[in-house]
Amino acid sequence: MKLIGSTTSPYVRRTRLLLGDTDYEFVNLDIYGEGRDELRRNNPALKIPVLIDGDQEVFDSRVISRYIAGKRGDTPLSWEQENQLTLIDAINDSAVTLVLSMKSGIDVEQDLMFYNLQRERIMMSMRTLAAMIDAGEFEAWQYPAMCLYSLVDWLEFRDVVDFTGVESLLSFRDRNRERPMVADTDPRS
Fold it and tell me: Looking at the whole model, is its pTM more than 0.90?
């Protein structure tokens, strides 16, 4: 298997955590620079990660997780876990939009509907996830917990959000720092 991505992507990190000590090749791309051509060759959606397993190409982290679970014979995610992933992905998508906008020189703090909606989605979803953590819903180190870990650590790494009122997200991250592959996939390395 070959995983194509970037060490700074939370979507790639969650996939690397899921793969754990599975034998695979990791291709780290600069997707906004010289790696863009390779990304074009491997995924017409121009998204990372991309998993290549023999003749099978899989284009999205959530789909990759289902593919890997199928290969391993893992129990499918519950609807509750799927909803958790939807919240995590909503935050990820909105936060990536904010980061790319800032890198493009756009003031995302403007009172514009588009950015207001991104910030609202992030905070509503973060509050809901924090309540889920408080209720013990992410105790098992399964794919949703790996995704949440990757998200929270990336949000702090990129300094995208204020964690005031949702500190349990940071506590969750801190409790899981010693999990397998977490240090190896740190975007700061």
Answer: yes
